[in-house]
Write a structure and sequence with these properties.
Protein pafC, Arc Repressor Mutant, subunit A, alpha+beta, PafC-like, PafC_HTH, 318 residues, CBASS_pafABC_assoc_protein
């Protein structure tokens, strides 16, 4: 699988490789680098928009493609030793410390070696009073991380917000990672027979089992470059009319379409479960209305009518 980390590593190696071989053919370069010629062309297209802050003429990496031969004409300073400011060095130290606490995302030994070199170069700055830990319940994250590192299967009691339900299931962990400030467990769920993401703060209880984790061959970590939520076309499409107080929905959730109708916006988005969408709409009162599907519109109208009727009923104790 061609991950973002693989591509970044390849791009960092590509510039010095090409600098040392001006005029090399794409076929020869792709053979040396172990990628297809098509992938190499895509990497070169990406390099054209990489460079120094400012990202204008004279800031970006430049090259000449003459037929099937490529020559780097401007490397944007990649051949010069890196000089970090105090803030940049501290930010890098903090990021590496966080990465070292997150299993399954990279080679921990390599991270710790890089961290040791940067801390040594940073001197007293590396000892700044900055504590780094994974967000969420620290004991829960540590326990799950330990089970992942030992390769043990887990039994989870998990709250699924989209269905407002708590279930028990056995999973084979793949990795623990942090996305958008939240820790997640990615694992093969034996109940669903598929790879699933579990927010750690929604794991009510867990227990490491005596058996080893045994995910099947098709259980591969998901590509999360586009975010944790993947709005596939097989999910229900919900269309809403939102007022000014509900426009935050367009910033918080990925939307397929947003149409401005003056005081209201029409928003189309994919949801994992219509019950979750029903609770979202009911929680915003008059600021959000359902356009489609009819099933959701009827469910919201029914619950709203029942609530109004309950408020209008006389108090039997009164």
């Amino acid at each position: 699988m061609n991950t973002s980390a693989d591509r970044l590593s390849r791009l960092l190696n590509l510039v010095p490789y090409l600098l040392a071989r001006p005029g090399i053919t794409l076929g020869e370069a792709s053979g040396d680098l172990g990628v297809s010629e098509r992938q190499l062309r895509e990497d070169l297209e990406l390099l054209w928009v990489c460079g120094l802050p400012g990202y204008g003429p004279g800031d970006l990496i430049d090259m000449v493609l003459d037929g099937d031969r490529v020559t780097i004409t401007y490397d944007a300073g990649i051949d010069r030793p890196l000089r970090l400011t105090a803030d940049e060095a501290l930010a890098l130290v903090v990021a590496l410390r966080m990465l070292a606490e997150t299993p399954g995302v990279a080679d921990r030994d390599a991270i710790e070696r890089a961290l040791a070199k940067i801390e040594s170069a940073a001197g007293d700055l590396a000892g700044a009073p900055v504590a780094v830990s994974l967000p969420g319940n620290a004991d829960r994250v540590a326990g799950i991380r330990a089970a992942v590192e030992r390769g043990r299967a887990l039994e989870l009691t998990y709250y699924t917000a989209s269905r407002d339900a708590t279930t028990r299931r056995v999973v084979d962990p793949l990795r623990v990672f942090v996305a958008a400030g939240r820790p997640y467990l990615e694992a093969w769920c034996r109940r669903a027979e598929a790879v699933r993401l579990f927010r750690v703060d929604r794991i009510d209880a867990f227990a490491a089992l005596g058996e080893p984790a045994a995910p099947p061959p098709q259980a591969a970590p998901a590509d999360l470059a586009g975010g944790v939520f993947r709005a596939s076309t097989d999910l229900p499409l919900v269309t809403l009319r939102v007022g000014r107080a509900g426009r935050w929905i367009t910033e918080y959730y990925p939307c397929e379409r947003v149409t401005d109708h003056g005081d209201e916006w029409e928003v189309a988005l994919r949801v994992t479960d219509l019950a979750w969408a029903r609770r979202l709409v009911l929680g915003h009162g008059p600021h959000v209305r359902v356009v489609a599907p009819e099933e959701l519109r009827a469910a919201v109208a029914g619950e709203a009518a029942a609530a109004l009727q309950a408020y209008g009923s006389p108090d039997p104790a009164g």
